[in-house]
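your task:
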Amino acid sequence: MSLFDLTGKVAVVTGSSRGIGRAIVERLAEHGAKVVVSSRKMPACEEVAAGLNARHGAGRALAIPANISSKEELQRLADQTAAAFGPIDVLVCNAASNPYYGPLGGIADDQFRKILDNNILSNHWLINMVAPAMRTRKEGAIVIVSSIGGLKGNSIIGAYNISKAADFSLARNLAVEFGADNVRVNCIAPGLIKTDFARALWENPATLKASNARTPLGRIGEPDEIAGAAVFLASRAGAYMTGQTIVIDGGQTIT
């Protein structure tokens, strides 16, 4: 049996109707998992789920929309998943927000709160809705999609970077709390990836040129180049890894 086999596992991926989240949910399904596609809008979720069911067989994917800023909607996501597919084995907290570009001195309080709430607090909420059942079963994998921004300073996306640094610490602390019950919590830290979420960065020629110049591979990443790490962390291949961060950035943080 492959170390990466996820047959029989149930996986929930937030923000999975496009970008990195979509790539992750597609690869988890490809490796055998039953997957829940979740983002704010039902039609976008249904489109991805329909494609997965067409490729892998009916009943392999389910669309459950949820706005991560709503604790009630996240609870509904957890409850409906369990009702439809059974206990959740894999949770990928991928959805995030960044409503502000500019120096920290110019950010409005409501913008800062939205970043912190959606990028940290929502992960805390959903994890604590899902983790108790994992701990009871003595098995589970939780993955938070963070960013290399959490490892660096930046004059344009500082608030976002602060939230992503907090996600590293969230994973470490939960790994300590959950470890005795064989529930693993890890982060993935992508560099600049060609997604709609990061469009403001890679569509700017000057920003893209500067990013590529300090990246050993000389280019930005594609969403599917992040998905393999999620499969690793979700599967038996990653069974002894917890509290860690996998950096996938084309080498940018080494220069």
Q: What stands out?
A: The chain has a mean pLDDT of 95. The CA atoms of residues 138 and 156 lie 42 Å apart. Strands lie at 10-14, 34-38, 61-63, 90-93, 140-145, 183-190, 245-248.
